[in-house]
Amino acid sequence: MLFAPGFITPQSHSGICNPDLYRQNTNKMKMKKRIIAASVAIASFTTPAFAAPRFTDSSPTNWAYGALQNLAERYGCAVGYPDGTFRGSNPTARYESVALMSACIDRVYDTLSQADRRIADEARAAIAVTNARVSALEDTATRKAVGVGNYVGAGINLNRQGVSSDTYSNNRTIAGGTLQGRFPVTEVYGTTISARPYVNFAAGPDSQIGSAFGVLGTVDVSLTGRSIGGTYVSGTNLYLGAGGQWALTNDGQANYQTSIGQGSQFVFVAGVERAFTPSLVGFADLKFPTQENGVAGTAYAPVGTVSLGFKF
Fold first, then answer.
1. What is the DSSP string of 203-233?
2. CA 234 to chain centre
3. What pLDDT is stored for residue 233 in this prediction?
4. Does residue 180 or residue 67 have the better pLDDT?
5. How far is residue 131's CA from residue 310's CA, in Å, rounded to a whole number?
6. Residue 91: is its pLDDT beyond 90?
7. What angle is formed at CA 100 by the lines to CA 96 and CA 104, rounded to 5 degrees?
8. pLDDT of 14
9. Cβ density class 189-224: b for 16+ within 10 Å, e for less
10. CA dist 118 to 108, 112, 259, Å?
11. How far apart are alpha carbons 202 and 305 in whole angstroms?
């Protein structure tokens, strides 16, 4: 015989195994099936996913009850028969095992897919916020680069001198220096209201250096510009306004300069400014003082200013 003695009975011609060995193997297979049945449930999908089913034939005293509840509550793949029973002691067919495993794998996959979608949604939201912040920063940088903006500059001014000397008479034109800034305050009907502080310097015939401080309020009208990030940015402005000027030195020949004056006075201004580079602005204006300062012919002898400013 080809088989070991005792393994095949004389009935081997009919294909029947030794009854004792067959019974032992059958019992082992049943135990394995019961372990599988205690871990997962029959996939009839009669209860909603993630709802803990109440099986009439299962109680907390059962040794596999915890595993059954875990599959039901956590993964939603442990369901029973339509009559509400689980039948955990019954042998499990191979088809049932395949159905059970497929149901649980699908449920775990769906759970992971939901987590992936949630992570992707959160990532997209964070990216959108970051993009908005980056765009805002880029728009701010672009507005600063192409717009006139805030600046402080230095330049020269030309004014009329109202005092004579041994070598010349009054009413001649002389040069001085100026420091001037621009600070936008608010927007009104498409124009910008700006504050423009300045300090003028000029020397009299006796070489005395005189100075005056002034503040102008101007209406700035855009001549060229473009919209950046929904905000219009002006690259060239015409500005008109008025303000006050106060002499910082008195009782000297320097006070006979129209850019200095004596005491305090009103001043009118008209000018133009343009952004040349992301950091430089050029501006020129005429200031009209209201004091004569010894200058014959007019009390409003203009003071011309040409300057280069640095944006900040």
1. E-TT--EEEEEEEEEEEEEEEEEEEETTEEE
2. 24
3. 92
4. 180
5. 30
6. no
7. 170
8. 38
9. eebbebebebbbbbbbbeeeebbbebebebebebee
10. 15, 10, 69
11. 13
Classify burial at 100, counting beta carbons within 10 Å of its beta carbon; exposed 0-12, middle 13-18, buried 19 or more. Answer: buried
C-alpha span between 41 and 180 (Å, rounded): 85
Task: Return d(Cα 241, Cα 180) in angstroms, integer.
Answer: 15
Tokens 């009907």 sit at which residue?
Answer: 189
Domains of the chain (ranges; CATH) run 17-113 (no CATH), 148-311 (2.40.160.20)
What is the C-alpha to C-alpha distance for residues 249 and 262, in angstroms, rounded to an integer? 8
Phi, psi of 230 (to 5 degrees): 80, 0
Amino acid (one-letter) located at 78 = A
Query: Could you tell me the pLDDT band of residue 93, with boundaries at 50, 70 and 90?
Result: confident
Percent of the chain with pLDDT over 70: 78
Angle between helices 19-39 and 94-146 (to 10 degrees): 30
**Rounded-to-integer distance, Cα 247 and Cα 257, Å:** 11
Query: Which residues make Cβ contacts (< 8 Å) with residue 304, sequence separation at least 6?
Result: 157, 158, 159, 284, 285, 286
Q: Are 161 and 170 in contact (CB under 8 A)?
A: yes
| Digit-coded pLDDT (tens) for 6-39 | 333 333 333 333 445 445 555 545 544 444 444 4
Q: Find the angle CA(236)-CA(237)-CA(240) to the nearest 5 degrees.
A: 165
DSSP string of 295-312?
-SS-S---EEEEEEEEE-
Q: Apex CA 167: angle with CA 166 and CA 172, to 5°?
A: 110
* Element holding 128 (H helix, E strand): helix 94-146
